[in-house]
Amino acid sequence: MARETLSREKVLDAALGFVDTHGVSALSMRKLAAELGVEAMSLYNHVKNKGDLLDGLAARVFESVPLPDPAQPWETRVRRFAEACHLAFTGHPAVLRTLVAAEANPRSPGALRVIDGLLGALLEAGLDEPATVRVYRSLMGLIFGAALAETIGVTGVPADRAEHVDDWFRRMTIPAELPHLSRVLPALVQADCRHDLETQLDLLLTGLRAELAR
Fold it and tell me: I need a surface site. Which of 21, 57, 72, 110 has the fewest CB within 10 A?
């Protein structure tokens, strides 16, 4: 790829593909430049440093979330947003972990439009500003939590572990000593995190409707 064909978007998309395969810890300007077939210094025309690169990756994931139709009812838009966010985050678990660990922020106009769309749906429901912020944070917590739970172990057993965590739990959970964990363990290790998210959304939105009715 010739230098003049580079753009910030191409650099970020190449970096996103790299971390999806190798993880964030393996990412460097040198390795990314090699992926693009350019010198590492040429990347600095498009990203300031690794922090800017990570922010850009977070932004690209947020930007991939489609905005729900503003003509739809507010509750439908909230559900569509949550579903689309979950799909985007589980598709890029390495980037998700940088967001949760506060190592990256989605700093782009496109990412802000996605956030603005969700806030708009909550405001349309009739919430005031402080309540909108509380519900927004609760929703993002549900979405992040479900996506994290679904992607645990997605990269396999870490290099410094000999056993997958699910296998360790099965081996260590002795019914006589841990009766409650033993009882729910089969359901725990086979949980459908997408279904769990839908259930939690139902509970949150049911409570929100009741609060608005009061």
Answer: 21
